[in-house]
Design brief:
Layout (H helix, E strand, L loop, with lengths): L1 H25 L7 H24 L3 H24 L10
């Protein structure tokens, strides 16, 4: 069961990363560079694998949910900062 979940995470992230790749073939409005794909891949694969690690190591369900929710919130905050620089940190290039 654990390996199926891990394979599901990898397939899901890969499919998510193919969406902008395919969109780039049909429109000029999506313009990702190699570094964009690398950063998105690191964020998405890292989040998925970190949540998988938590699911394997943490035994209490409440703690699993809380830790995975925290990981997802951190992913979303990082993604928003990189996308639009909402916090104005140098991390986003401001």
């Amino acid at each position: 069961m654990q390996n199926r979940r891990l394979i599901g995470i990898v397939i899901t992230v890969t499919m998510l990363l193919t969406v902008p790749l395919i969109a780039m073939q049909f429109t000029n409005e999506v313009n990702w560079t190699l570094s964009d794909f690398i950063v998105a891949g690191v964020l998405l694969y890292g989040t998925g694998l970190l949540c998988e690690f938590v699911m394997r190591k943490v035994t209490k369900t409440e703690h699993r949910i809380a830790i995975c929710a925290l990981i997802l919130v951190l992913l979303l905050l990082t993604w928003v900062e990189l996308a639009v620089g909402i916090f104005g940190t140098p991390f986003a290039g401001s």
